[in-house]
Write a structure and sequence with these properties.
Elements: E1 8-12, H1 17-27, E2 32-36, H2 52-67, E3 71-80, E4 96-100, E5 103-106, H3 108-121, E6 129-139, E7 145-156, E8 172-174, H4 186-192, H5 194-207
Parallel strand pairs: 1-2, 1-3
Antiparallel strand pairs: 3-6, 4-5, 6-7, 7-8
The structure holds inosinic acid.
Length: about 210
């Protein structure tokens, strides 16, 4: 059985304001006071792992060690079956542009095009199965950890469709739907996403 959080402070090991807001809203009802790694001035560790679990643990452990407070980190991405699970932990890197709209940044249409191009190169009948993963890692200052893995399965479509969501949402059609995640009502996406799956597991383990 995993160690319990109880109530009190929890550092969210992210410098992304959107993630902090989303995670704080999810954990607020359970009595957790969420602090951000950014507001505590914690450094961002290099994500040198080769799996989502390794990278989530690197971020959670670094935050717990530096702050002395139990910390939560997440790592997520898209895996394509016919590409042996790529881009996987490199999902965000595939969108990296030295220069995008006049400044360094990410170009998601370039990244989606790269995945589609690689799939086309493997042949017209290649299965288009793909999945999003989200791993949540908890780390306590004494070194204890707990990991929760979420996943949503689906298929890639082309061309991209929809204007909601972010990242690879316009090319991902979850199983049982004809709409891409970018065509979903955001609340509906949050109900069935890989992130929702991982959080449901964390909440069941920590707060039930
Ligand atoms: P990270 O977890 O912040 O490292 O982000 C990994 C990358 O995976 C993000 O930048 C997105 O491109 C992609 N990703 C993760 N979750 C989603 C999602 O729900 N929709 C679309 N793309 C996602």
């Amino acid at each position: 059985m995993n160690r319990r959080l109880g109530s009190g402070s929890l550092v969210i090991a992210t410098h992304n304001a959107g993630k902090l807001k989303e995670i704080s809203a999810l954990l607020g009802p359970y009595g957790m006071k969420c602090l951000s790694a950014g507001s505590l001035g914690l450094p961002e560790p290099a994500e040198t792992g080769t799996t989502f679990v390794q990278n989530a643990l690197i971020k959670a452990r670094a935050s717990a060690e530096a702050s002395g407070i139990v910390s939560l980190a997440d790592d997520s991405g898209l895996s394509v079956a016919a590409l042996d699970g790529r881009p996987g932990v490199y999902t965000a890197d595939w969108a990296q542009r030295q220069w995008f709209e006049g400044k360094p940044g990410r170009d998601w249409y370039m990244a989606m095009g790269k995945v589609e191009g690689m799939l086309c190169e493997t042949g017209p009948d290649t299965p288009r199965d793909a999945w999003f993963s989200c791993v949540l890692a908890l780390a306590w200052p004494d070194g204890e950890t707990a990991v929760y893995e979420g996943r949503v399965d689906g298929a890639l479509t082309w061309p991209p469709r929809g204007t909601m969501g972010f990242g690879y949402d316009p090319v991902f059609v979850p199983q049982g739907s004809e709409l891409t995640f970018a065509e979903f009502d955001p609340e509906e996406k949050h109900r069935i996403s890989h992130r929702a799956d991982a959080f449901a597991k964390l909440v069941a383990d920590q707060f039930s």
